[in-house]
Amino acid sequence: MSPAPLRPRPGRAGIGALKDETASRGWPPLIWTRALGYELDADRAVLEAYERAVVSQKLNEFRRFITGTHAAAHPNDKWARHIVAQLNFIESPLDLIASS
What we know:
The protein is mostly helical. It has four helices and two strands, in the order αββααα. It has a two-stranded antiparallel sheet. The longest helix is centred in the middle third of the chain and has 25 residues. The model has no long low-confidence stretch (mean pLDDT 81).
């Protein structure tokens, strides 16, 4: 039995649309923190911490996705080697961005 297809989450799409709208109008960015949930904030330190957290999260998602799928099943495959090499290439700069 195959897994159920992934469906977009309406809440996530709505938050994305709201972020796009606030950016297009020049309003303070919408961010989410564990402590406060969603908020509009333009404080530099808060935005930087949010950006670093998001970059770190996305880097981990990409790393796990690539190394846990095709590369894990077929480590000697040309495509798998290529994508892992590209991931290794961008991993260091993204780690620098994500570190505080």
